[in-house]
Design brief:
The protein is mostly helical. The protein has three helices and two strands; from the N terminus they run αααββ. A hairpin with a 3-residue loop joins β1 and β2. The protein is globular.
Amino acid sequence: MTKRTSLKLTDERQRKLERASAIVAEDDLDDPPMSVVIDAALENLIEHEQNLDDARGELPPETIQRFNTSVVGLRYRTSIESKYR
């Protein structure tokens, strides 16, 4: 990952941030800072990967694959793959 000093907010990225902000917000009046929303999204991604990895030996692959996302998914019960890049 390269470090950048700015984050370009395209319309789509802004919509995703607003949707994620609504999920992170404590109530309808809460407006969490972008850093909190990004931290929550990153933590969720890390936890999702760990949960899929932990479930590999306990559940059949068909069951696990139902919980794959467009970013992280389990494939052939052997590895976790990021579909984002």
